[in-house]
Amino acid sequence: MGAIISITDLRKSYDNGFQALKGVSLDIEEGEIIALLGPNGAGKTTLIGAVCGLVRITGGTVTVGGHDVVHDPRRARSQIGLVPQEIALDIFETVWKSVRYTRGLFGLPPDDAHLERVLKSLSLWDKRDNQCKELSGGMKRRVMIAKALSHAPKVLFLDEPTAGVDVNLRRDMWALVRELRASGVTVILTTHYIEEAEEMADRVAVINKGEILLVEDKAHLMKRFGRKLLTLELAEPVTALPAGLEGRGLTLSEDGAHLVYGYDTAAEHTGITRLISDLADAGLRVRDLDSEKSSLEDVFLRLVEEEQA
């Protein structure tokens, strides 16, 4: 499949001189889930706004489904469903009328069968006659997603879709996103829940200070930047590392009962065998071992720290 969104040298500057986007280039493939990660103020929301035609760009080009967002905005926007961070609903309107109205905004004829499928997929069908004010926060967020899907877009932007919802509802939404991808919808996700990106994304794009630091397949990213932590439980606590073990990447716990050793998962030699041998030579007996892989959060923080250094 080819790129459904092509972003080339995208720039956004404000009158005060602030550069929110600094030459961003990114191709998003049709049918993929891509997670856009970055700290607050990194440019994530500005980038989404630029693609959706909500932010006037200073330079560069953006096309959605082959349609330029500046020169052919109506056709470009018709390809996109957007679920913003803020819940914006007419609280006195029913779920059904709210979703039906949004479809009409795109100039499309009524399609009640499609809207019924959307509401059922979001477990909203039984709530269709309820006023939005009667819904929980999680249900209101589902209505926002239903409105974004009302015109059957090819691309769905989810800007912090599970902020403030409980864990069970979050996992339900993860399942829905997978179903959308399986149906051919391209999903761009921004999230503060790193485990959300780790769970769902095919690729990860990291943005900071208006620049893309990296775009990579999630599995390759974890392999390239991932680390493992090996925790060694000592048979007897120690007050300090024995001479000769300093500089080996070991960290002694406060209680002196554990040593933590970090190593690169992609390295040819981990050094664990040599380390355990050296510990024995130093008179330290190891009672138990436990290893833990680094998370995508660890990788993300490492990338941002390196870029800021």
UniProtKB/TrEMBL annotation:
<dbReference type="InterPro" id="IPR027417">
    <property type="entry name" value="P-loop_NTPase"/>
</dbReference>
<dbReference type="GO" id="GO:0016887">
    <property type="term" value="F:ATP hydrolysis activity"/>
</dbReference>
<feature type="domain" description="ABC transporter">
    <location>
        <begin position="5"/>
        <end position="234"/>
    </location>
</feature>
<dbReference type="InterPro" id="IPR003439">
    <property type="entry name" value="ABC_transporter-like_ATP-bd"/>
</dbReference>
<dbReference type="InterPro" id="IPR003593">
    <property type="entry name" value="AAA+_ATPase"/>
</dbReference>
<keyword id="KW-0813">Transport</keyword>
<dbReference type="InterPro" id="IPR017871">
    <property type="entry name" value="ABC_transporter-like_CS"/>
</dbReference>
<dbReference type="GO" id="GO:0005524">
    <property type="term" value="F:ATP binding"/>
</dbReference>
<protein>
    <submittedName>
        <fullName>ABC transporter ATP-binding protein</fullName>
    </submittedName>
</protein>
<dbReference type="Pfam" id="PF00005">
    <property type="entry name" value="ABC_tran"/>
</dbReference>
<keyword id="KW-0547">Nucleotide-binding</keyword>
<keyword id="KW-0067">ATP-binding</keyword>
<dbReference type="InterPro" id="IPR050763">
    <property type="entry name" value="ABC_transporter_ATP-binding"/>
</dbReference>
